[in-house]
Structure formats: structure tokens, C-alpha cells
Amino acid sequence: MNKKEKWDGRSRPSNDRYRENFNEIFGKKPTIDLKGTVFCKAKKCDNHLYKNESASLPGYCLECG
């Protein structure tokens, strides 16, 4: 019977999928200044309301309202 190598708790298998996920999670993210920006109230909508607000439903964008 062969014994498995002991896992040190820190090392990870270094394959392509791990590298892609690592870069996605910990890689540099673009910084956008969203200070004072108002977004649409719909849950799955990330549109800005500046010059895009619905006349019939205030707080919602033209696509949602």
C-alpha cells in the first residue's frame, strides 16, 4: 500500500484552472470612482440614473421603468 504525501496546508496544485481563478479573485481590479453615483433600484440592474431616469417611475432607469 502506498502512502500519500503529507499536505502542508499551504501549497496548492499549480494548474491552469487554479491560476485563472487566482487571477480572477486576487488580480488587479479596475478602480472606478462611483462616489455620489445613483444606480437603478431594480435588483439585477446596474445602470446609472444620470440622464437615464424613467419619467413614469422615479428611481428606475429607462430600461426597467
Query: Could you state the oligomeric state of the chains shown?
Result: single chain
**How large, in whole angstroms, is the Cα Rg?**
23 Å
- The shape is elongated
Q: What is the H-and-E element order?
A: H
Q: Give the total of beta strands.
A: 0
Q: For the terminal residues, how far apart are their CA atoms?
A: 67 Å
Helix content: 10-25%
Low-pLDDT regions: none
Q: Helix/strand-derived class?
A: mainly alpha
Question: Could you tell me the strand content as a percent range?
Answer: under 5%
Describe the structure.
The protein has 65 residues and is mostly helical. It is 17% helix and 0% strand. It contains 1 helix and no strands. It has one helix at residues 16-26. The longest helix is centred in the first third of the chain and has 11 residues, at 16-26. The relative contact order is 0.13. The mean pLDDT is 79.
Layout of secondary structure:
Elements: H1 16-26
Can you describe this structure in just a few lines?
Helices cover 17% and strands 0% of the residues. With 65 residues, the protein is mainly α. The termini are far apart.
List keywords for this structure.
65 residues, mainly alpha, 17% helix
